[in-house]
Amino acid sequence: MREDLAAMADAAADENVHAALRQIGTLHDARHVIFDNDTRFMFASVFDGSWDTYIDDFAKTVVGARFDKVFSHSEGFPGVTDPGVKDWFLAHQEPAGVFVSAYPDLTVQQIYKDHRVDDAFEAVLDTAEFRAMLENPANADLVATPAFQKLLEEAAA
Q1: How many Å apart are CA 42 and CA 136, to the nearest integer?
Q2: Hey, which bits of the chain come out as E strands?
Q3: What is residue 11's predicted lDDT score, i.e. its pLDDT?
Q4: Which residue among 8, 60, 112, 141 has the highest number of C-beta atoms inside a 10 angstrom radius?
């Protein structure tokens, strides 16, 4: 299992995996942990939406094959596309005692959008046209508004 996890970590930069995760569009993060002298394994993930949809979505992508490879080391794992896989996961699931999120109200899709908007805004900030717009007296009222000033402060941070 350690070898499979190491191979999976090495392949984490694989564009097919990133494309599948973007296609699924609900996974915030996932962790695989081996502990108790290599006798126990924990998989923990944070995702948006329902658990059923989450498992179904993974089974449809290259991520499903990675699930199968890792979980094949677990007793009785039927395979991610097996109709009994959800029952297997539920039988082995433990609720978190405490869960804290730095951004509890943001979905993965909102975070992707925020990054796209940030990239686009940064590209605008770097143009001569934007600097000229800031200096144009015709835009002085807009530039002086608290909202615009806040935008500029956030962009500079």
Answers
A1: 58
A2: 27-35, 40-47
A3: 67
A4: 8
CA nearest 92: which of 41, 150, 52?
41
Question: Would you say residue 24 has pLDDT above 90?
Answer: no
How far is 133 from 138, CA to CA, in rounded Å? 9
**Long-range contacts at 140-145 (CB < 8 A, ≥ 24 apart):** none
Token pair, residue 156, equals: 């500079």
The DSSP 8-state label assigned to residue 139 in this structure reads G
Give the model confidence (pLDDT) of 107-131 as tens digits: 999 999 999 999 998 899 889 999 8
Q: Which two tokens stand for residue 24?
A: 């699924």
**What is the H or E stretch that residue 103 is in?**
none
Of 15-19, 46-50, 97-101, 123-127, the range with the lowest mean pLDDT is: 15-19
Which residues touch 149 (CB under 8 Å, ≥6 apart)? 143
Q: pTM, whole model, 2 decimals? A: 0.76
Q: Which residues contact 104 (CB under 8 A, 6 or more apart)?
A: none
